[in-house]
Amino acid sequence: MALYDPFGRSINYLRLSVTDRCNLRCIYCMPAAGVHAIKHADVLSFEELLTVSRAAVAIGVEKIRVTGGEPLVRKGIIPFLAELATTPGLKRLVLTTNGILLPEMAAELRCAGVESLNISLDSLQPDTFDSITRGGNILKVFEGIKAAEEAGFKRIKINMVVIRGVNDHEVADFAALTLKRPYHVRFIEYMPTLRDDSWKARTISGSEILGKLALRYSLQAESKAAMDGPASYYRIAGAAGRVGVITPVSCHFCNECNRIRVTSTGIAKSCLFATETHDLKPYIHAGDDQALRDALRYVVTTKPEHHAIEERAQRNMTMPMSQVGG
Ligand SMILES: Nc1nc2c(ncn2[C@@H]2O[C@H](COP(=O)(O)OP(=O)(O)OP(=O)(O)O)[C@@H](O)[C@H]2O)c(=O)[nH]1
Ligand SMILES: C[S@@+](CC[C@H](N)C(=O)[O-])C[C@H]1O[C@@H](n2cnc3c(N)ncnc32)[C@H](O)[C@@H]1O
Ligand code: SF4
Ligand code: SF4
C-alpha cells in the first residue's frame, strides 16, 4: 500500500526514537548540562513501540530507522529489534548509533536482523572527539566500526556533522577513509537545533564541503537507490566507498522527503522541524489499531512542504535532537 502526502511525496520511512537517553553529550545536540531525562513511565514500552511500528507498516512504511538518544543504551534493545525485524511488510530495519557500544553489540545487532548501521563520528582526532562529545572515547568508536565489519555489516555509513572552526579541517581525512574501505562517509550540515547565535558562521554548506574535497580528489556523482535518505553521493575515482553530503540547511531535499518520526514517548512528527505534534498514546493505550493507523495517516497529511530552520532559529526555538531522533 502506497502512502502519499499532500505534496505527492511517497512516505515509506519511519524514524523511530527508542530513548532520549545517551552515553555522550555532543555539543551540537545537547546543552552542556544535558537534557532533563524523560521519566521511564512516559517512555513507550517495547510492546508499544512494536504496536506503533506495525501500524506504520500497515499504512505503507517499508523502512524503519531506529534512533535516539543512543538506541543501544536502552536495556532489552536486541530482543526488541529481533521482534521488529519480523514485522510482515517491513523491508528494511536499520539503526543510527554513536558506536560506543558496538564493540560488544555489533554481532548481536546483525543476528537480530538489523540490515545496516549509520555510525556518527565527528572527528578522527581523540582530543577533538573528546571535546565535541564532551568526554567520549574515540577508541570505542574505532573498535565499534571494526566490530560492525567483522559482524558482516556490508554498508557502514559514517556521519560527520561539519562545524566551521571545530572539525572542518578533517573533511579530506574523512573522505580518505573511503579509498580503501567500502564506507559511505556523509558530511552533514550543522543545524541550529540548540540556541546558537553564530550558527550561520559555523554551518558549512554541502557545496563548500564538496569544493574542499574537489581540491584534493576527482569526484563522480552517484545515483540514489530506492528508500535512500537525504544524502547525495559521490565517489572518489577508484575508491572502495563513497562520500555524501546531507544538506538540511541549504535544503536540497525536502522535495523528496519520504519520512515521518515517532519519539520514544509516542509523539509523532510529520517533519523534523514540525511544531505541531501528534500524541499517539491514547490510541496505543486504548489498543485501537485502526485509530492508530488513522492517526498516523493524519500525521502524513500535515507534512509541510519544507522546513523552517531559519525562522525557528530567529525565534530561539530549541530542539535537542536527542529527543527527536535526528
Ligand atoms: N532536515 C532533515 N535532516 C535529516 C532528516 N533525516 C536525516 N537528517 C539529517 O541527517 C542525519 C543523518 O541521518 P541518519 O540517521 O544517518 O539517517 P539518513 O541519512 O536519513 O538515512 P539513510 O539514508 O537511510 O542512511 C540526521 O541526523 C539529520 O542531521 C530529515 O528528514 N530532515
Ligand atoms: C540525534 S543522533 C541519534 C543517534 C545516535 N545517538 C547518534 O549520534 O548517531 C542522530 C544524528 O543526529 C545528528 N545530529 C544531532 N544534532 C545535530 C545538529 N544540530 N545538526 C546536524 N546533525 C545533528 C547526529 O550527528 C547523528 O548523526
Ligand atoms: S548526537 Fe547522538 S551521541 Fe551525540 S548527544 Fe546526540 S544522541 Fe547522543
Ligand atoms: S526538514 Fe522536514 S520536510 Fe525537510 S526533509 Fe526533513 S523532515 Fe522532510
From TrEMBL:
**UniProt-listed GO biological process terms:** Mo-molybdopterin cofactor biosynthetic process
Q: What class of enzyme is it?
A: lyase
Cofactor(s) this protein cannot do without: [4Fe-4S] cluster
Identify the EC number(s). 4.1.99.22
Instruction: Could you list this entry's UniProt keywords, alphabetically sorted.
Output: 4Fe-4S, GTP-binding, Iron, Iron-sulfur, Lyase, Metal-binding, Molybdenum cofactor biosynthesis, Nucleotide-binding, S-adenosyl-L-methionine
Binding annotation for [4Fe-4S] cluster 2: 254, 257, 271
Q: Offer an example of a GO molecular function term for this protein.
A: S-adenosyl-L-methionine binding
Which Gene3D superfamilies would you find in this protein's record? Aldolase class I
Entries under InterPro entries matching the protein:
Aldolase_TIM (IPR013785), Elp3/MiaA/NifB-like_rSAM (IPR006638), MoaA (IPR013483), MoaA-like (IPR040064), MoaA_NifB_PqqE_Fe-S-bd_CS (IPR000385), MoaA_twitch (IPR010505), MoCo_biosynth_MoaA/MoaC (IPR050105), rSAM (IPR007197)
* UniProt remark on cofactor binding: Binds 2 [4Fe-4S] clusters. Binds 1 [4Fe-4S] cluster coordinated with 3 cysteines and an exchangeable S-adenosyl-L-methionine and 1 [4Fe-4S] cluster coordinated with 3 cysteines and the GTP-derived substrate.
Listed binding positions for GTP are: 15, 65, 96, 157, 259-261
Give every Radical SAM core domain span: 6-228
Q: In which pathway does it act?
A: Cofactor biosynthesis; molybdopterin biosynthesis
Residues where [4Fe-4S] cluster 1 binds? 22, 26, 29
* Function statement: Catalyzes the cyclization of GTP to (8S)-3',8-cyclo-7,8-dihydroguanosine 5'-triphosphate.
What is the name of the protein in this document?
A: GTP 3',8-cyclase
Species source reads Trichlorobacter lovleyi (strain ATCC BAA-1151 / DSM 17278 / SZ)
What gene makes this protein?
A: moaA
